[in-house]
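Journal club side-thread
Mid-discussion, someone asked how the predicted structure for our own chain would compare to the paper's figures. Pasting it here so we can look after the session.
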Amino acid sequence: MVPPTIPRLQVEPVPVVRLSRTFNISAAHRLHSIYLSDEDNVKLYGPCNRQYGHGHNYKITVSLMGRADPHTGMVVNLRVLKSIAQQYVADLLDHRNLDIEVDYFVKRPSTTENLAVLVWQQMHLGLKDMGLPESLLDNVTIEETDANCVSYSGKCAPN
């Protein structure tokens, strides 16, 4: 006797998509490490170590990745992403002197690398506060100039 054939259920895969929000901030800073001598700071950072600092018009892109809800077609409403980026990042950083007005930079140089980590942490906090999974956060990219950008995706190297 041949066993009956059980029909396979046709389950449509749920797409995983990335959505991004790009926004701009303007901020001043001075590349200077409290762990280096003044002479070593000048050697390392050059003109970016000048006493009164300099500024940038940063272009920041934050990206989320997740499953698109089959009922709404969205991972997260882009208005929510815009709101988190504004409240947790732009309001903290825009038109600020990063070294003086942002506590995160008291003990670390205000490099674009460190800025990307801070933006990641702020977006992580914003997602959590909005009741969204922090695991949705996929990447942060900061363009300091047209030629220089830094991306951070939450990875940390062992000490």
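Post-session note: The first helix runs from residue 38 to 45.
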